[in-house]
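DATA SHEET
Item: assembly model
Revision: 1
Owner: S.N.
Input lines:
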Amino acid sequence: MAEKQQDWSAIARNPKFVELHRKKTTFLIGWWIFSTVYYFLLPIGAAFAPGLFKIKILGRINIGYLFALSQFFVSWGIAMYYAHVANKDFDRLTRELVDELR
Amino acid sequence: MKRTFIALCLAIFLGSVAYAAESAATPATAAPTSTTSSSPAATTAVMPAATQNTPEANTPAPDRTFKANPMVTIPIFLIIIGVTMAVVVWSAKKTKSAADFYAAGGGITGTQNGWAIAGDYMSAASFLGISGMIALYGYDGFMYSVGWLVAYITVLLIVAEPCRNAGKYTLGDILSFRTEPKPVRAVAALSTVAVSTFYLTAQMVGAGKLMQLLIGIPYKTAIIGVGILMVGYVVFGGMTATTWVQIIKAGLLMSGATLLSILVAAKSGFSPFQFFNDIATSPNIIEHVQKTVLKDPLPMPGFDYGQRFLEPGLFLKAPLDQISLGMALVLGTAGMPHILMRFFTVPTAQAARKSVIVAMFIIGTFYILTTLLGFGAAIHVTPQAVMKVDKGGNMAAMMLAQQMGGDISPFIGDLLLAFLCAVAFATILAVVSGLVLAASAAIAHDIYVNVIKDGHADQHEQVLAARVTSLCVGAIGILIGIAAEKSNVAHLVALAFAVASSGNLPVVVMSLFWRKFNTAGVISGLVVGTVAAIALVMVSPNMTYPKKVAADAQKVITALEKQQADGAVLDAKQTADLAKAKGDYEKNKDGKSLMGLDAPLFPLKNPGIVSIPLGFLAAIIGCLAFPNRRSEEMFDEIYVRQNTGIGMAKAIDH
């Protein structure tokens, strides 16, 4: 399949790869759990704490509306932050690893 | 063998056209003339209900009062068809190898792919359905839309880049990497075809009904028209044409939504406070919430019905169902074969990452704009008028377009409506093309090339197989669309997401991240997840239960007969209702649901909350029960590949 036979388990043991894998796993799982929990607070909150959602904040705009709107910004925020970290850290580590193997 | 296969496909295709043409010919002799002939009367009478704010009890035939002007709509449709056809001709020249056909030769940039993902994902249902839900039920519609964006966090963080690095054209490529390729590819292809078929059927039926409602084309003609275009795009242009159709559609959809939102916002002086105030103080919304939604015959003193429209709980009354749907969205989007396939069109993991982020901004902005459209329709078109045209509110955005433009001049109203119709049309084409391509790739690449031919097929044969398969899949899509006209398809979108989240996602994630994962795990996970999701939907409240229909009809009969007994004379509409209810009762009183049930066995409409854990569990148990050393040894390879892209399957085959 690959043009050149790689020793995959050796790469997997390479300290650079171990570092990349460790950093990536923590980041990805952590932020995925955060975004999922934040999202499910919306239907759960609407169902079990409607009183909270009804509190008016700005004129007629209530907490429920602002919270739903915040979901969009939180998702975008996570996406941008991930892009930032991935471009800076993960891609750099990957490049270094690939260069080392060459 | 190959010849018979092609002949069979052609036969199916021609058969479907003949079947449909025959039935379409009877009601309206020739399709194009019928659209122009039937409408001059309708266009002059466009929307009286919407311009007068008070709903009248007996306006006859409300469905005739709202229709696009064909003199404006048809040219716009022709422009879209012309442009997309030009794209097809251009991309057909570039489509020479299997990689060109399935993955546009890996030559799509991150930004282009982002637009294409958005175009692939935002269906007419989310555009029209969600704005309608907001127009009728306010806050709950907005809350419903959130999950469709949040779903992309899973795509971004968990599947996009690994899939780009480890895969080639299909789901089967990722799953068969360190397993027994043949059984795994076969099962993966079946699951892909199942998801695509459910989603495609829902889209086709929706397309037919929409075109029927908007421009008066008969249902079958609309399905065949959409079907032929879709088959044309995919068969000749492959992924390149499909991608560009999706990009064009996303651009049209975003400009339509933005334009309309600006018009709505201008009405409230571009002030969000004024906008929310307009919603909460609109007498029509107050009356709608009180009488139609909360069913209070007299207003409760001191209760702010207008503000209630901005609070949760008018439509989504089953929190568990909501959570279940949320799970299916968050995990299912990342398991949708037509979305996964988009990541094989970009050259690198970085481009895949960028494309998800671009898509997230487009999709998120779109849903925020949808809120403006939905609330705008509630203020300016009124929920009453929206419900009169379509009970589910699906025409809210369309009616808003005509109203907002019509406030400037009647011609601009028609123009804006025609533009939105064209957007809906492009939307349908883009989504169905993506689905046909995903299903065809699964059949041609996984089953034909890799299972039947053991991977020994030259480029020419692979492309031919892909084209023939697309033709067949498209033809079958048309047939199913025609056959399903009268059936209840609302649950099919939920079903597609449920199967993707319970069957596909668990095995994709475990293939990429779990050392012990193997053939038995893939097969048991895919089979159990898919079967559980389908079985639960089959016994859920989504299906039609004749006993319940009969009971509802009985209620109508009792109520009307009681009125009669009290000496009231029924008007024409009530008499018709009574006759219809009696007929419904007789027809349904001894009936059973498709599964032979009197009442649903499973209480939720969305099976995710049960079927997703089942899918994961089955994958884990299956894999632990039949451990495989080779799969474990190959984990390092797939893990290094998916993280780094080393040894990545080149998108362009040499």
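QC remark: Chain B touches chain A through 53 residues (CB under 8 Å).
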